[in-house]
Amino acid sequence: MAIPIINNWQSYYPEPDEGMGSSYERIILNRLLLRLHSERGYESALESPCFGFTGISGINLMALAQKGTMVYLEDHDLERIELIKESWRELSANMEIMQNKSGYTELDFPDGSIDLVFNFSALWFVQDLSAFIGEACRIAKKDILICLPNRDGLGFKDQLKGYSKERYPRLHPAHISAESLIYLMRKRGWKLVEKDYIDCPPWPDIGMNKEDFLSEKFGVELPKSQKPKEKLSILPYYRGEDPDFEHRMMRLFPFERTMPQWFKRIWAHHRYFLFRS
Description:
The chain is an alpha/beta fold. Helix content is 36%, strand content 17%. The two termini are 29 Å apart. A 7-stranded mixed sheet has the order 3-2-1-4-5-7-6, with helices on both faces. The chain has one domain (5-276): 3-Layer(aba) Sandwich (Rossmann fold), CATH 3.40.50.
Protein backbone atom coordinates (compact mmCIF):
# COMPACT_ATOMS: atom_id res chain seq x y z
CA MET A 1 0.00 0.00 0.00
CA ALA A 2 2.89 2.32 0.74
CA ILE A 3 1.01 5.26 2.25
CA PRO A 4 4.28 7.21 2.72
CA ILE A 5 4.58 7.83 -1.04
CA ILE A 6 2.02 10.60 -0.56
CA ASN A 7 4.71 12.54 1.26
CA ASN A 8 7.88 11.46 -0.60
CA TRP A 9 6.85 10.79 -4.21
CA GLN A 10 9.27 13.47 -5.51
CA SER A 11 12.25 11.42 -4.28
CA TYR A 12 11.83 8.86 -7.07
CA TYR A 13 12.57 11.31 -9.89
CA PRO A 14 16.10 12.80 -9.55
CA GLU A 15 17.76 9.36 -9.71
CA PRO A 16 15.06 6.75 -10.27
CA ASP A 17 15.38 3.88 -7.80
CA GLU A 18 12.22 1.88 -7.23
CA GLY A 19 13.78 -1.11 -5.49
CA MET A 20 13.21 -4.78 -6.13
CA GLY A 21 9.58 -4.78 -4.97
CA SER A 22 8.27 -2.16 -7.38
CA SER A 23 10.50 -3.46 -10.18
CA TYR A 24 9.04 -6.96 -9.87
CA GLU A 25 5.55 -5.50 -9.58
CA ARG A 26 5.95 -3.60 -12.85
CA ILE A 27 6.97 -6.69 -14.82
CA ILE A 28 4.10 -8.75 -13.39
CA LEU A 29 1.65 -5.96 -14.24
CA ASN A 30 3.13 -5.66 -17.74
CA ARG A 31 2.54 -9.35 -18.35
CA LEU A 32 -1.13 -8.97 -17.42
CA LEU A 33 -1.62 -5.84 -19.53
CA LEU A 34 0.18 -7.26 -22.57
CA ARG A 35 -1.81 -10.49 -22.40
CA LEU A 36 -5.06 -8.55 -22.39
CA HIS A 37 -3.77 -6.33 -25.21
CA SER A 38 -3.01 -9.37 -27.35
CA GLU A 39 -6.51 -10.73 -26.70
CA ARG A 40 -8.46 -7.49 -27.07
CA GLY A 41 -6.37 -5.24 -29.30
CA TYR A 42 -6.52 -2.05 -27.26
CA GLU A 43 -6.05 1.04 -29.41
CA SER A 44 -6.56 3.42 -26.48
CA ALA A 45 -6.19 3.22 -22.72
CA LEU A 46 -6.74 5.59 -19.80
CA GLU A 47 -5.17 5.41 -16.34
CA SER A 48 -6.98 7.63 -13.85
CA PRO A 49 -5.78 8.53 -11.29
CA CYS A 50 -2.25 7.61 -12.37
CA PHE A 51 -0.70 8.17 -8.93
CA GLY A 52 -1.05 6.11 -5.81
CA PHE A 53 1.72 3.61 -5.25
CA THR A 54 5.45 3.39 -4.81
CA GLY A 55 7.92 4.39 -7.48
CA ILE A 56 7.70 6.59 -10.53
CA SER A 57 4.14 7.67 -11.23
CA GLY A 58 2.40 7.50 -14.57
CA ILE A 59 4.36 4.74 -16.32
CA ASN A 60 2.14 1.72 -15.67
CA LEU A 61 0.85 1.75 -19.27
CA MET A 62 4.23 2.35 -20.92
CA ALA A 63 4.36 -1.22 -22.25
CA LEU A 64 1.00 -0.73 -24.02
CA ALA A 65 2.16 2.59 -25.50
CA GLN A 66 5.24 0.89 -26.91
CA LYS A 67 2.89 -1.60 -28.60
CA GLY A 68 1.08 1.27 -30.31
CA THR A 69 -1.76 1.92 -27.85
CA MET A 70 -2.63 5.59 -27.34
CA VAL A 71 -2.33 6.17 -23.60
CA TYR A 72 -4.16 8.89 -21.67
CA LEU A 73 -3.29 9.76 -18.07
CA GLU A 74 -4.96 11.89 -15.42
CA ASP A 75 -3.45 13.35 -12.25
CA HIS A 76 -4.44 16.15 -9.90
CA ASP A 77 -0.93 17.49 -9.15
CA LEU A 78 0.65 19.87 -11.70
CA GLU A 79 4.19 19.33 -10.47
CA ARG A 80 3.87 15.57 -10.81
CA ILE A 81 2.30 15.94 -14.26
CA GLU A 82 5.41 17.73 -15.49
CA LEU A 83 7.67 15.02 -14.05
CA ILE A 84 5.54 12.31 -15.66
CA LYS A 85 5.87 14.06 -19.02
CA GLU A 86 9.65 14.07 -18.56
CA SER A 87 9.65 10.33 -17.84
CA TRP A 88 7.80 9.66 -21.09
CA ARG A 89 9.63 12.12 -23.31
CA GLU A 90 12.32 9.75 -24.60
CA LEU A 91 10.24 6.59 -24.47
CA SER A 92 6.99 7.01 -26.40
CA ALA A 93 4.97 9.71 -28.09
CA ASN A 94 1.74 7.78 -27.56
CA MET A 95 0.79 9.60 -24.36
CA GLU A 96 -1.32 12.56 -23.37
CA ILE A 97 -1.66 13.64 -19.75
CA MET A 98 -4.15 16.07 -18.28
CA GLN A 99 -5.04 17.51 -14.90
CA ASN A 100 -8.25 16.30 -13.29
CA LYS A 101 -9.68 19.04 -11.08
CA SER A 102 -12.94 17.27 -10.25
CA GLY A 103 -11.59 14.83 -7.68
CA TYR A 104 -12.03 12.20 -10.44
CA THR A 105 -15.81 12.48 -10.31
CA GLU A 106 -15.70 13.52 -13.99
CA LEU A 107 -13.61 12.04 -16.81
CA ASP A 108 -13.38 14.36 -19.80
CA PHE A 109 -13.81 11.82 -22.61
CA PRO A 110 -16.73 11.04 -24.94
CA ASP A 111 -18.97 8.04 -24.34
CA GLY A 112 -17.38 4.73 -25.34
CA SER A 113 -14.18 6.38 -26.52
CA ILE A 114 -11.53 4.44 -24.52
CA ASP A 115 -10.87 0.74 -25.10
CA LEU A 116 -9.37 0.13 -21.66
CA VAL A 117 -10.02 2.13 -18.50
CA PHE A 118 -7.40 1.21 -15.92
CA ASN A 119 -6.67 2.02 -12.30
CA PHE A 120 -3.76 0.65 -10.31
CA SER A 121 -4.64 0.71 -6.62
CA ALA A 122 -5.42 4.43 -6.69
CA LEU A 123 -9.17 4.44 -6.04
CA TRP A 124 -8.55 5.91 -2.61
CA PHE A 125 -7.76 9.25 -4.30
CA VAL A 126 -11.22 9.33 -5.87
CA GLN A 127 -13.50 11.68 -3.96
CA ASP A 128 -16.76 9.92 -4.89
CA LEU A 129 -16.33 6.25 -5.81
CA SER A 130 -19.79 5.83 -7.32
CA ALA A 131 -19.33 8.87 -9.55
CA PHE A 132 -15.92 7.68 -10.72
CA ILE A 133 -17.20 4.19 -11.53
CA GLY A 134 -20.12 5.71 -13.41
CA GLU A 135 -17.74 7.79 -15.51
CA ALA A 136 -15.43 4.82 -16.15
CA CYS A 137 -18.37 2.76 -17.36
CA ARG A 138 -19.55 5.62 -19.55
CA ILE A 139 -16.30 6.10 -21.46
CA ALA A 140 -15.05 2.48 -21.58
CA LYS A 141 -15.52 0.69 -24.88
CA LYS A 142 -14.09 -2.77 -24.18
CA ASP A 143 -12.69 -3.36 -20.70
CA ILE A 144 -12.28 -1.88 -17.25
CA LEU A 145 -9.32 -3.24 -15.28
CA ILE A 146 -9.08 -2.26 -11.62
CA CYS A 147 -6.26 -3.30 -9.29
CA LEU A 148 -6.71 -2.98 -5.54
CA PRO A 149 -4.31 -3.38 -2.63
CA ASN A 150 -4.83 -6.79 -1.06
CA ARG A 151 -6.65 -5.76 2.11
CA ASP A 152 -6.31 -9.28 3.52
CA GLY A 153 -2.55 -9.18 3.11
CA LEU A 154 -0.34 -9.07 6.17
CA GLY A 155 1.65 -6.19 4.70
CA PHE A 156 -1.47 -4.10 4.09
CA LYS A 157 -2.70 -4.58 7.62
CA ASP A 158 0.67 -3.46 8.98
CA GLN A 159 0.85 -0.37 6.77
CA LEU A 160 -2.69 0.70 7.59
CA LYS A 161 -1.55 1.29 11.17
CA GLY A 162 0.00 4.54 9.96
CA TYR A 163 -3.29 5.87 8.55
CA SER A 164 -5.45 8.56 10.08
CA LYS A 165 -7.98 10.86 8.42
CA GLU A 166 -6.20 13.90 9.83
CA ARG A 167 -2.81 12.82 8.51
CA TYR A 168 -4.05 11.76 5.06
CA PRO A 169 -7.18 13.82 4.32
CA ARG A 170 -7.16 13.03 0.58
CA LEU A 171 -7.10 9.29 1.18
CA HIS A 172 -10.31 7.22 1.30
CA PRO A 173 -9.44 3.62 2.32
CA ALA A 174 -13.10 2.59 2.09
CA HIS A 175 -12.86 3.03 -1.70
CA ILE A 176 -10.45 0.11 -2.12
CA SER A 177 -13.06 -2.45 -1.10
CA ALA A 178 -13.47 -5.29 -3.61
CA GLU A 179 -17.08 -5.78 -2.53
CA SER A 180 -17.96 -2.12 -3.17
CA LEU A 181 -16.22 -2.16 -6.54
CA ILE A 182 -17.99 -5.29 -7.76
CA TYR A 183 -21.37 -4.03 -6.51
CA LEU A 184 -21.02 -0.67 -8.29
CA MET A 185 -19.84 -2.25 -11.53
CA ARG A 186 -22.65 -4.81 -11.61
CA LYS A 187 -25.16 -2.09 -10.82
CA ARG A 188 -24.12 -0.44 -14.10
CA GLY A 189 -24.36 -3.65 -16.08
CA TRP A 190 -20.69 -4.62 -16.20
CA LYS A 191 -19.74 -8.26 -15.60
CA LEU A 192 -16.74 -9.45 -13.64
CA VAL A 193 -15.03 -11.79 -16.13
CA GLU A 194 -11.68 -12.36 -14.43
CA LYS A 195 -10.08 -11.79 -11.04
CA ASP A 196 -6.98 -12.98 -9.24
CA TYR A 197 -4.26 -12.10 -6.78
CA ILE A 198 -1.22 -10.53 -8.40
CA ASP A 199 2.26 -9.40 -7.34
CA CYS A 200 3.13 -12.13 -4.86
CA PRO A 201 6.93 -12.08 -4.42
CA PRO A 202 8.83 -13.87 -1.63
CA TRP A 203 8.47 -10.89 0.74
CA PRO A 204 5.45 -9.20 2.34
CA ASP A 205 4.10 -5.85 1.20
CA ILE A 206 6.27 -3.72 3.47
CA GLY A 207 6.13 -0.59 1.30
CA MET A 208 9.79 0.32 1.92
CA ASN A 209 13.23 -1.20 1.45
CA LYS A 210 14.13 -4.09 3.73
CA GLU A 211 16.84 -2.12 5.59
CA ASP A 212 14.41 0.62 6.62
CA PHE A 213 11.72 -1.94 7.46
CA LEU A 214 13.95 -3.94 9.81
CA SER A 215 15.31 -0.79 11.41
CA GLU A 216 11.95 0.93 11.97
CA LYS A 217 9.92 -2.14 12.97
CA PHE A 218 12.44 -4.24 14.87
CA GLY A 219 15.45 -2.04 15.56
CA VAL A 220 17.66 -4.34 13.49
CA GLU A 221 20.53 -2.69 11.62
CA LEU A 222 21.91 -4.77 8.75
CA PRO A 223 25.66 -4.63 8.10
CA LYS A 224 26.44 -1.95 5.56
CA SER A 225 27.84 -3.29 2.30
CA GLN A 226 31.03 -1.82 0.86
CA LYS A 227 29.46 -2.03 -2.57
CA PRO A 228 27.22 0.82 -3.70
CA LYS A 229 23.54 -0.14 -3.67
CA GLU A 230 22.24 -1.05 -7.12
CA LYS A 231 19.60 1.38 -8.36
CA LEU A 232 16.64 -0.45 -9.87
CA SER A 233 14.24 1.15 -12.32
CA ILE A 234 12.29 -0.11 -15.30
CA LEU A 235 13.04 3.04 -17.31
CA PRO A 236 16.36 1.78 -18.76
CA TYR A 237 14.52 -1.40 -19.81
CA TYR A 238 11.97 0.68 -21.71
CA ARG A 239 14.84 2.59 -23.35
CA GLY A 240 16.40 -0.67 -24.51
CA GLU A 241 19.43 -0.19 -22.23
CA ASP A 242 18.70 -3.08 -19.85
CA PRO A 243 17.29 -5.96 -21.93
CA ASP A 244 17.88 -8.47 -19.10
CA PHE A 245 15.64 -6.57 -16.65
CA GLU A 246 12.50 -8.66 -17.21
CA HIS A 247 14.45 -11.91 -16.99
CA ARG A 248 16.00 -10.88 -13.66
CA MET A 249 12.63 -9.97 -12.19
CA MET A 250 10.99 -13.16 -13.46
CA ARG A 251 13.46 -15.28 -11.52
CA LEU A 252 11.18 -14.51 -8.59
CA PHE A 253 8.00 -15.60 -10.40
CA PRO A 254 8.13 -19.33 -9.49
CA PHE A 255 7.18 -18.33 -5.94
CA GLU A 256 4.06 -16.55 -7.22
CA ARG A 257 3.21 -19.25 -9.74
CA THR A 258 3.31 -22.11 -7.25
CA MET A 259 1.69 -20.53 -4.21
CA PRO A 260 -1.85 -21.78 -3.42
CA GLN A 261 -4.72 -19.30 -3.38
CA TRP A 262 -5.12 -19.46 0.40
CA PHE A 263 -1.53 -18.30 0.80
CA LYS A 264 -1.83 -15.56 -1.82
CA ARG A 265 -4.80 -14.22 0.09
CA ILE A 266 -2.58 -13.32 3.02
CA TRP A 267 0.64 -12.60 1.10
CA ALA A 268 -0.05 -11.09 -2.35
CA HIS A 269 0.33 -7.32 -2.62
CA HIS A 270 -2.55 -6.70 -5.05
CA ARG A 271 -5.70 -8.10 -6.61
CA TYR A 272 -7.10 -7.35 -10.03
CA PHE A 273 -10.66 -7.31 -11.37
CA LEU A 274 -11.50 -7.29 -15.09
CA PHE A 275 -14.97 -6.14 -16.15
CA ARG A 276 -16.81 -6.19 -19.51
CA SER A 277 -20.24 -4.87 -20.41
